[in-house]
Write a structure and sequence with these properties.
Length: about 900
């Protein structure tokens, strides 16, 4: 006697491999969609925190505590050491228990001193005594003499004409001391400041825009520093305790806890005032950057949360729809079994239980793999690999409840389909429901979303004050509704045309004739697949349109702001280094353009070299850049020709000060131009015109190409530069970061829904397989060749997927064209948002669909060749 059916149920699904694969695919994608949301938000927050911390000095970004401890006066050396120890203990007590901080780095910074070589008259040299933990491990040692003493910079050694082993005299004005030079090291202030010394940047390099060179650092150990400080009667010693943040593996959540503890210490010190330990004052904690970085990273997560969750929900809904279709197919594939169960009195509840029991093992495995794949996918292609430890558990909980919903939906649709199958008459309302124009409801929602986007006061991409850009959920939901509604409407229209293929294809070749008959006879099923595939393709294509447009916009804004890939401000006019594709320009601000009487920015260019070094986009003007620049050349005449960006009258002049006026005429008005500033009109004139008016400004070198290579060339060329800015640094802003991450997640959803559409293709093929085998068995006896049958199946699948591709790409392009101008986190910066078509992505989608059609046709032909003719005819009867 066999096992009860409820015991056999968990193993029955393995006898229907196509149905098993479709259910597994849908549950897996459902798990990926639900699990990827918390994982992606965690990764985005951690990446935003890491990027936010990168520009800051790690020694000042967290806890930097400063104290002033007098070593002279009423305080003897012994009591001074005791007071230092007492302050050390109090600082350590304040910091104890705060996680994620590296060991303390202690620094003593003395006051300015005069130094000279002992026994030889020389000019006094300004120095400053410094004791810092590990200092000699972070300098380049040039000379060394055995024994104790101080280490001086090569700058100080050259000025005082001393070497290692000599002695120098230090004078504070209140006391003096002689000390031996134990070594000479490379001055850290003569090049890029190493990270170890970044907290002492002012002491090493002086204050910005100051013409007074700062004292050079003289390094001494703790004991020697205290001895010299006492002898020099230096009362201005600054004691610094720095606790760098341990950023490796640090998540935003943990960094937030650390920031809160540090903020609490700072608030306590600010509220109670300085703490005294005898005559020693413990100053307040310096204002760290950590809380601000944590706040901005949390704002980035908040800006992404709504859009990411909406995208995740959309992917889940598509997966749930395919699971519902799997429930319908479950009944269609097992009609006889359902009829027997119904005859034995099994109702809808029993059918649901049976479906759940059969699908549960596959669903558990698929959900587990989907959960694992979501975590792995975010780590591999997300903002960063670092996730919060709580994310896997949170994602697993979401997978469990969404998977349970998917199973119940599949069981419910199976029960409803079984009821329709076993009812003697038509199920009440079934035909009405099947004919209901659901597309109208979806399009109404799409119209409402578009109305909100276009008419309300807030923009779809909002940049808060000091915060990241926030992507409106409607910007991502509208295209899904728009594509789904219109694709469904187009499919409903095609349903009326497909039956006409019966008569139209009567004289076609055998393969095309068979294709037309199949499409005409399976219009409802075929067009459901077309709608689902068009939606999947549309989501992916829309994400591609907006991603390509957003990247082009971000790059164009950065290049317009800089003028090119790299902008170098020169100290003086110098030749362009060989090997660079570059040009030189001069920029002058604050010029008045009359008769409009508005301040404008003037850009002085060389028309012959500017096209080689400047950025240009065809949307900036009606003509190419060289043709526009030719209008600036030639005889100047009474008025100088200029190009203009902004609302300026065609004829006018420039007020250059001291009553000097320069008449000009606008030869072309442009939408944008390299070097343009936001909210300020720009005029462009040639070097000849500028020389005629005596107009000059700071010289910049604009270079096009790889920023890293250009920067290396500039560094080795000997150019005297004030600053070097690259396009990469300008684009790395939180405004563009949040938008690009949200669109990247939308693209991932498009790929996932594409995989779901493949599951729909499998269900379609399996649902038509029995009828196709009967047709093939009969047609073979009437002379149909195997090749003609394979071609017909390929045309059947390829035609439907081609229609889906055309619908999806076209509707996605229309939706993106409607909204691309709204996808601008920095609307005040020129140029306006750009529209780009992702041709490589569209081509890859078409190629993937061709592969799907070919593989599907091969599988159908293989199954048809293996089918037993007698069994097929028995099923037909």
């Amino acid at each position: 006697m066999g096992s009860p059916p409820w015991v056999r149920a968990p193993f029955l699904l393995f006898t229907f491999p196509t149905l098993l694969l479709a259910i597994a695919t849908s549950v897996g994608i459902l798990a990926i969609a639900s699990a990827s949301s918390p994982a992606f938000l965690s990764a985005a927050g951690n990446r935003a925190f890491q990027d936010g911390m990168a520009p800051f000095c790690p020694y000042t970004a967290t806890a930097q505590i400063t104290s002033y401890i007098p070593l002279v006066g009423r305080v003897a050396l012994g009591s001074g050491s005791q007071r230092i120890a007492a302050t050390d203990a109090s600082v350590q007590h304040a910091i104890t228990g705060i996680a994620n901080l590296d060991p303390v780095v202690h620094t003593i910074l003395g006051g300015p001193l005069s130094a000279s070589k002992t026994g030889a008259p020389s000019a006094f040299h300004q120095v400053r005594l410094v004791e810092r933990d590990g200092a000699l491990d972070h300098v380049q040692k040039l000379q060394s003499a055995e024994g104790s003493g101080v280490w001086i910079t090569d700058t100080s050694a050259a000025t005082m004409k001393v070497k290692a082993g000599d002695s120098i005299k230090l004078d504070s004005g209140a006391g003096h001391a002689t000390v031996r030079v134990a070594g000479v090291y490379r001055d850290v202030g003569t090049g890029p400041l190493p990270q170890f010394w970044c907290s002492l940047g002012v002491a090493i390099n002086g204050y910005p825009n100051s013409n007074i060179p700062p004292p050079r650092l003289v390094l001494a150990d703790r004991d020697l520093f205290l001895q010299l400080g006492t002898a020099l009667r230096d009362s201005g010693d600054q004691f610094i305790w720095e606790y760098p943040l341990h950023t490796q593996g640090l998540t935003l959540h943990d960094a937030g806890d650390t920031a809160a503890r540090l903020f609490g210490i700072q608030q306590a010190l600010e509220s109670t005032g300085p703490q005294f330990f005898g005559s020693v004052t413990l100053a307040s904690v310096s204002s760290p950057q950590l809380p601000g970085v944590v706040r901005l990273a949390n704002e980035t997560v908040d800006a992404l949360r709504g859009s990411v969750q909406a995208i995740s929900l959309a992917g889940s809904i598509v997966a749930l729809l395919v699971l519902g279709a799997a429930g319908i197919y479950w009944v269609d594939r097992r009609r006889s079994e359902v009829a027997v169960l119904s005859a034995k009195g099994a109702g809808s509840a029993a059918i649901m239980v049976k479906v759940v029991l059969e699908a549960l093992p596959v669903a558990i495995v698929a959900a587990g793999l989907g959960w694992y794949a979501a975590i792995a996918m975010v780590r591999a292609v997300g903002p960063t690999r670092l996730l919060d430890p709580s994310v896997p558990g949170q994602a697993l909980r979401q997978v469990v409840w969404t998977g349970a919903i998917g199973l119940l939906l599949m069981a419910a649709t199976a029960a409803a389909s079984a009821r329709r199958l076993t009812e003697l008459g038509p199920v009440r309302g079934a035909q009405t429901l099947s004919r209901a124009p659901w597309e109208a409801a979806v399009l109404l929602l799409a119209a409402a979303s578009l109305y909100e986007i276009l008419t309300r006061g807030t923009a779809p991409i909002e940049s808060g004050t000091g915060g990241p850009a926030k992507v409106d959920v409607l910007l991502l939901l509208f295209p899904i509704l728009f594509v789904a509604g219109l694709a469904g409407l187009a499919s409903r229209g095609l349903r009326r045309l497909l039956p006409r293929l019966r008569s139209a294809g009567s004289r076609w070749p055998p393969a095309m004739y068979l294709t037309s008959r199949r499409l005409a006879g399976a219009s409802r099923t075929a067009l459901a697949l077309v709608t689902a595939s068009a939606l999947a393709i549309g989501i992916l294509a829309y994400a591609g349109f907006l991603t390509a447009s957003a990247k082009a916009t971000a790059r164009a804004k950065a290049e317009v702001f800089l003028g090119s890939d790299v902008a170098v401000t020169l100290v003086r006019d110098q030749p362009i280094p060989a090997g660079l594709q570059a040009t030189k320009v001069e920029s002058v601000d604050g010029i008045i353009y009359y008769p409009d009487q508005v301040p404008v920015k003037a850009l002085i260019v060389n028309p012959r070299t500017l096209p080689a070094g400047a950025f240009w986009d065809g949307s900036f003007g009606a003509s190419s850049l060289p043709s526009l620049l030719r209008k600036l050349e030639g005889p100047l005449g009474d008025t100088a020709p200029i190009l203009a960006v902004g609302p300026l009258k065609p004829e006018g002049g420039l007020a250059l000060g001291a009553g000097t006026q320069a008449p000009v005429r606008i030869v072309a008005s442009l939408k944008a131009f390299p070097g343009e500033s936001p909210n300020e009109p720009l005029i462009v004139l040639s070097q000849d015109a500028a020389s005629r008016f005596g107009l000059t400004g700071p010289v910049q070198l604009w270079a096009r190409g790889d920023p890293a290579a250009i920067t290396r060339t500039i560094r080795h060329s000997g150019l005297d530069t004030l600053s070097v800015a690259t396009i990469d640094s300008v684009q790395a802003t939180s405004d563009f970061r949040a938008v690009s991450w949200a669109l990247g997640f939308l693209q991932a959803l498009g790929i996932m829904t594409g995989a779901i559409a493949l599951g729909g293709v499998l269900l379609y093929l399996e649902a038509r397989q029995r009828a196709r085998e009967i047709s093939y068995a009969l047609s073979r006896r009437m002379g149909l060749t195997r090749r003609a049958h394979a071609v017909s199946v390929t045309l059947e699948l390829g035609g439907m997927l081609l229609i889906a591709w055309l619908l999806g790409v076209f509707l996605a392009g229309v939706a993106a064209r409607i909204l691309y101008l709204k996808l601008d986190p920095l609307p005040d910066f020129p140029p306006p948002a750009l529209y780009r078509v992702p041709l490589p992505l569209i081509g890859l989608i078409a190629l993937a669909l061709l592969v799907v059609a070919a593989v599907g046709a091969w599988r159908v032909q293989r199954a048809a060749d293996r089918a037993r003719v007698a069994e097929v005819m028995r099923l037909a009867a």
